[in-house]
Write a structure and sequence with these properties.
The chain has 371 residues and is of the alpha+beta class. It is built from eleven helices and 15 strands. α1 runs parallel beside α4, α3 runs parallel beside α4 and α8 packs across α10. The chain is globular and about 80 Å long. The model has no long low-confidence stretch (mean pLDDT 91).
Length: 371
């Protein structure tokens, strides 16, 4: 038998030293994404968070969420720009927690890549840390895994999970929503992190390059597609805790679009009618529709169309809520109203969505034409 040369871990494609360098490069970013309750530092087997403050709560309820950013990572990889995708990850995870009225406390991340390039990993984590800073969330740990042979050297994917807390009697949801409530919209920063499989297919079919300057966007196509997901955490928690606003329910407009996500927080026996004429979707949405001849119904079921969050609250609180949101830098407006079921119209382009993602609740109808 011919003697085989020794095979090392590095020969198999895993560079432990590169992983260690990546950790060194990300340390400063992670230090900024903290809270006073965090115990220990970077490098432990587990992130630790002092939960003694929960002892002062009457009935603390923990809320948790996990997510990724989908195929938006393909745009980051194609542009070799990696310091924004982490903010997308944070937004997709922590703002799901805010929907029930909970304050996100801490987050962990996971990065899988074909080859650890320390500078690239550090840039991804810097984006995650920035997102955590914006949300007031502690980044207490993470993992970077090198998967040679499974992923190409330039490829990676990111995922994360977060935990938050809310008083039991302050949990938001369908049980609080009543006929007569106003439906408020909170503007998105763009595509956020959903529908990129459709978007990428459209631009590929059109033959457009990411470095193409698009006048109606005011920048290159790639720059528009990498616009980070808006993080609503602080602004919405301020709204929920405000004495002048009684928020009944929140909905994060992600995969499935406006109607399907709003339907998830509508109680049985109600209908939320929202009016397209109350807003004009940003240019990227009409551009995708035009380039790919995408039917409006498909656009609306896939993309957020310029609305990243929705709230249901008493009509009399709408003006105060809008003012607080705009003061926080997020445009908001009255989108529609909640009524009793059975009041749906038969107008064209006004399909009724009943429940979504396993939730058998109320209904949503989008009517009118975009402004």
């Amino acid at each position: 038998m011919t003697q085989q040369s020794p095979i090392t871990y590095a020969d198999a494609g895993v560079d432990v030293e590169a992983g260690d360098k990546a950790v060194d490069l990300m340390k400063e970013s992670v230090r900024r994404a903290t809270r006073p309750e965090v115990l220990g530092g970077l490098g432990g087997f587990a992130g630790m968070f002092d939960a003694s403050a929960l002892q002062g709560m009457r009935r603390p309820v923990l809320a948790t969420s996990t997510d990724g950013v989908g195929t938006k990572v393909a745009i980051a990889q194609a542009m070799d720009t990696h310091d924004t995708i982490g903010q997308d990850l944070v937004g997709m995870v922590v703002d799901d927690i805010v929907v029930c009225g909970a304050e996100p406390l801490f987050m962990t991340d996971y990065i899988a890549t074909g080859k650890v390039v320390p500078e690239r990993i550090a840039a991804i984590v810097a984006g995650i840390a920035k997102g955590c800073e914006l949300a007031g969330v502690a980044l207490v740990g993470g993992e970077t895994a090198e998967h040679p042979g499974l992923l190409d050297p330039h490829e990676y994917d990111v995922a994360g999970a977060a935990t938050g807390v809310v008083e039991h009697d302050a949990v938001l949801g369908p049980d609080r929503v009543v006929a007569g409530d106003a439906v408020l919209a909170f503007a998105s920063s763009g595509l956020h992190s959903n529908g990129y499989s459709l978007v990428r297919r459209v631009i590929a079919a059109a033959g457009w390059e990411l470095d193409r300057h698009v006048d109606e966007l005011g920048r290159t196509l790639g720059e528009e597609l990498l616009e980070p997901t808006r993080i609503y955490t602080r602004a919405l928690l301020d709204l929920v805790r405000s004495a002048e606003v009684d928020v009944h329910a929140l909905s994060h407009v992600t995969g499935g679009g406006l109607a399907a996500n709003l339907a998830r927080v509508m109680p049985s026996g109600t209908l939320a009618r929202v009016d397209r004429s109350t807003w004009t979707p940003p240019a990227i949405f009409s551009l995708v529709g035009r380039l790919g001849s995408v039917p409006q119904s498909d656009l609306e079921r896939t993309l957020n169309m310029g609305i990243g969050f929705v709230a249901a609250l008493p009509q009399g609180d709408a003006d105060a809520a809008i003012a607080r949101s705009r003061a926080a830098g997020i445009d908001a407006w009255v989108l529609g109203e909640v009524s009793d079921a059975g009041t749906a119209t038969t107008a064209p382009d006004s399909e009724v969505v009943q429940g979504a993602k396993g939730v058998d609740g109320g209904a949503v109808q989008v009517v009118g034409e975009y402004a």
